Amino acid sequence: MRAAVVQLLATPDVAAAQEAADRLVRRAAAAGATVVLLPEKWSVLGRDADVAAGSQPLDGPAVTWARRTAVELGIDLLAGSVSVTRADGRQQNTAIHAAPDGRLALYGKLHLFDADVAGRRYRESDREIAGDCLVVSPLSDDARTPVGMTVCYDLRFPELHRALAVRGARILTVPAAFTERTTAAHWEVLLRARAIENGVFVLAANQHGEHADGIRSGGRSMIIDPWGTVLAQAPDVDEAVVVADLDLARVDEVREGLPVLRQRRGDVAAALAGEEPGDLAAGWDVGAAGEAGRAAADAVAPRPGDTAAAPARDEAQA
Question: Most buried one in 33, 78, 225, 279, CB count within 10 A?
């Protein structure tokens, strides 16, 4: 399986972002990639007001383009994430998997970026609602390879990635707009850790460059194997397509030698689930019970053996 991650620079110019995404996805497909990942919020990024102005409904141009392009090119297009305006007018950072047969899977970002970095305060919860479902979506290869979907700040929560692996994920996707500072300090370390901990391939597409005055992402998009080896990495440029061939048998080899998924203790997971949620997370607005997950499950229509969405509250079972 040949996979590609796309690195780009989104700004408040929605039309320019759409053109760049289309051009780079086509470049990836021309290089033989059948699985292509875009970054977080590839359709618009800048200040809060810019993102709000560029937010779209699920049937808007960004998702419509992703679905059409996946069918046209015959690829699994993991179209990063887009800021989706819901029917109730609220925004949700929504990851998209558009399959070549027209299926669509959706994942609402579970962990909102409420943090202070390099003198700048980020409060996604001021304008966005958190998701409430885990999503593992099957690719369209013969093996129906399960992909665990995450977004950006989710990377800092290892329990999410473990739950996705336990639910069958053999590839984890990380569309991101990691800040320039945190990219330099933490990006590769966290990505390799998630791959090693779970014996999975990790596809990580980060934005690069200045989105608006003082708002910058750090790039270094990469593909990592289950041993934690970086197979390919983007150069320090605003636009790049990084391609690598994934030998999925490597997942089984690594997991057989280091059987951590079989050795995990349910009582440890249960102990974590029994703790009170973080005081900041407890204040996040969460979507109506299972809305994003139900939409994903309905749209994907899994075949027997496929895994789609599961409520985040089931983590104690992982």
Answer: 78
